[in-house]
Amino acid sequence: DKLLAFPGASDKGIFTYVIDTEHKHLIKTAAEYHPTIASYIANAKKIPGKTQILLTALGAGEWWGCNANGDFFPEAALAHEGSDYGYKTFQTNAKIYKHHVNKNPEAAYGDVSLSVYNPNYHRVELIVLLDNAKAPDIAERINSGDYPEWSMGTKVPYDVCSICGNKAPTRKQYCDHLRYYMGRIDPVTGRLAYAINLAPNFFDISQVLIGADKIAKTLKKVASLN
User: Fold this and answer.
1) Spatial separation of the C-alpha atoms in residues 111 and 202, rounded to whole Å
2) What is the overall mean pLDDT for the chain?
3) Are 53 and 130 in contact (CB under 8 A)?
4) DSSP, res 30
5) Which of 133, 191, 204, 207 is the least buried, fewest Cβ under 10 Å from its Cβ?
């Protein structure tokens, strides 16, 4: 398993905003999102007991680089249209958890309602549906203007070293590049060492304490019942 952590806010500002359709905020921002996401938001209805949130899950490594954990996700892997790996597995397999306590899906705090790959921004965009009764703390924080940290979990059959091409199904099989210089410059080759993930099967989106990914942010609260 791999965990992809990211913050919901930074020194650049907050990345979660309430969509206020009465003031037509959506019209100003719809072009930034995949048309399927924009259509979903434009037609979103409040669901009693639920909070709908728009997330940018992660970006393609060719455009956004590796994350702070040294994981690189190629665009071809994220944009893959099959059900075995890629962006669609968020919608078919992933659920909302806390701190990656994800062994029991029945204990999840919500589901992923929609997952798309945005080729213009080279990123995966999600609509997640949070159960307010199961996670009142998260819902209250979001509704009060605070933005919890989030982290993704994915299963991969193996990852590939960016320097030597070594394939490792577990960390025990890592080469020295990834074992000692993950996310840093290898002093011998002068190249950045990172793990290339060719077939990610996403199964977890968790609220966590500390995050790491560059662009994966909570962007908007789509709709909620006050």
Assistant:
1) 12
2) 82
3) yes
4) G
5) 133
Q: Quote the strand ranges of 60-177, DSSP E.
A: 71-72, 95-98, 110-118, 123-131, 149-155, 159-161, 167-168
Burial readout 132-163 (b: 16 or more C-beta within 10 A, e: otherwise) = beebeebbebbeeeebbbbbbbbbbeebbbbb
Burial of 63: CB neighbours in 10 Å, binned 0-12, 13-18, 19+: exposed
pLDDT tens for each residue of 77-104: 999 999 999 999 999 999 999 988 999 9
Q: Percentage of the chain surpassing pLDDT 70?
A: 80
Q: Which two tokens stand for residue 60?
A: 């393609």
Cα–Cα distances (Å) from 210 to 131, 206, 215, 221, in that order, read 22, 11, 15, 20
Residue in this structure with the two tokens 């893959």, named with its chain if needed? 80
Angstrom distance (rounded) from CA 36 to CA 30: 10
Closest CA to 7 of 217, 207, 219: 217
CA distances from 166 to 73, 135, 169, 177, 179 (A): 16, 41, 10, 9, 12
Residue 141 has what pLDDT? Answer: 84
* First-last CA distance in the chain: 37
Q: Do residues 154 and 94 make contact, with C-beta atoms less than 8 angstroms apart?
A: no
- What is the biggest distance separating any 2 CA atoms in the chain, rounded to whole angstroms? 58
DSSP 147-202: --EEEEEEE-S-EEETTT--EESSGGG--HHHHHHBTSB-TTT--BB-EEESS-EE
